[in-house]
Amino acid sequence: MEKLVRQIIDNVTSFRRPKNWVLKLVSLFFALFLWYFVVGEDKVDMNVTIPVEIVNLPRDLVISNQFKKQLEVTISGQRSLIRGMTSQHISRTIDLSKASPGTVVIQNNLDSISLPRGLSILRVQPPTITLLLDRLIQKKLLIKPILVGEVHSNYKLEAVTADPPTIEISGPQSILGAEQDLHTSPIDINGLNESAVKQAPLALKPAIADLIGEPVVAVRLNIVELNQEIEFADIPVEIESSANQQAGKIFQLLPPTVSITAEIPLKMAQATNDIKGLFHAKISPETLQAGSNELKVLVETSPKVKIIAIKPATVTLKISQTRPLKVKP
After folding, report:
1. Residues with Cβ < 8 Å from 139, sequence gap 6 or more?
2. Which single residue of 36, 86, 107, 124 could bond 40 by disulfide (Cβ 3.0 to 4.6 Å)?
3. Element (H, E) at 175
């Protein structure tokens, strides 16, 4: 027995080791480790989310409904392979190149998603995807401001404009087909006495809001003061000439007064005691020669007052020379 043991020891100690035997031994252990990690790792079932990707949708079509854009997929395989899927951009691709308007039901079969080797799909939720395909149209809709309240009693709202006046929208025909205009949220104008610009969001239906978001428009309010139309009688007409021109002459105006119809700002009319004093009627003859002259009546007044009519529009100016008295000696 001792001879046998001694013989085995002699054989081991006399064994000729190969060159680089340490490096080869390390490589062997590393290969065994990888084999265990890849082949020997336990399989697991994991739930992952996989995005839905729509491709080749015709240009004249649009998906008009909301659909689930991520699938819940149960995958069986080694844990490390499943975790490595995140860097491979795996998706459920739906090809709509041959689609037409209407309802399309897509089946999410187990083989509809391509996975790396070593992984398999056990379940897909939801099992189907329903798409409503509609014609894509483009429409220009008018912006209609909605106002509440009244401006100040001495003023009036002359014009209301939206900026921009229209909005162009692209979307499904089923949503935009019957639409003609878009309304703003209510704008309060109560008591305003001057022009203003108000920022107003649009009051949109949910389906249209999904297409264009929540735009805000500028609404311009043109507010002007109210005018009161009044007729003023017996406004005296004055002769505009120099004292030298009038020397030695007798003037007679027919008629000596005129009536003036004018639009006066309501606030001015209420605040002015002597409204007739706002008007200055006159004639301006170029020459003051004896005889009858028909002259146009001119009226000076405030820039805020609008002259509507002057009656009569012309007057007759009669001019005669004075004669010196002859005194008998």
Report:
1. 168, 169, 170, 171, 176, 179
2. 36
3. helix 173-176
As a whole number of angstroms, the distance between CA 301 and CA 323 comes to 39
Rounded to 5, what percent of the chain is helix, strand, coil? 20, 45, 35
- Tokens 């020669």 belong to which residue? 289
Bridge-based pairing of strands 291-296 and 249-254 is: unpaired
Per-residue pLDDT of the chain (329 residues; tens, 9 = 90+): 555 546 655 554 555 555 565 666 667 666 666 665 555 456 788 888 999 999 999 999 999 888 999 999 998 888 878 787 777 888 999 999 999 999 999 999 988 888 888 888 899 999 999 999 999 999 999 999 999 999 998 899 999 999 999 999 999 998 898 899 999 999 999 999 999 999 999 999 998 998 899 999 999 999 998 888 889 999 999 888 664 455 667 788 889 999 999 999 888 888 888 888 889 999 887 766 777 888 899 999 999 899 999 999 999 888 876 555 454 55
Residue 171, token pair as written in the block: 């979307």
The string of DSSP letters for 66-84 reads ----EEEEEEEEEHHHHHG
Consecutive H or E run containing 249 = strand 249-254
- 184 in Cβ contact with 165 (< 8 Å): no
In this structure, the number of other CB atoms found within 10 A of the CB of residue 256 comes to: 11
Q: Cα–Cα distances in Å, from 236 out to 141, 220, 293?
A: 58, 44, 18
DSSP 3-62: HHHHHHHHHHHT--PPTTHHHHHHHHHHHHHHHHHHTSSPEEEEEEEEEEEEE---TTEE
Which are the contacts of 60, defined by CB distance < 8 A and separation ≥ 6?
A: 135, 136
221 membership: H or E segment, kind and range: strand 216-225
Q: Residues 119, 75: contact at Cβ < 8 Å?
A: yes
Q: Which residue has the tokens 């004018």?
A: 262
Task: Show the CA angle centred on residue 125, arms to residues 120 and 131, nearest 5°.
Answer: 120
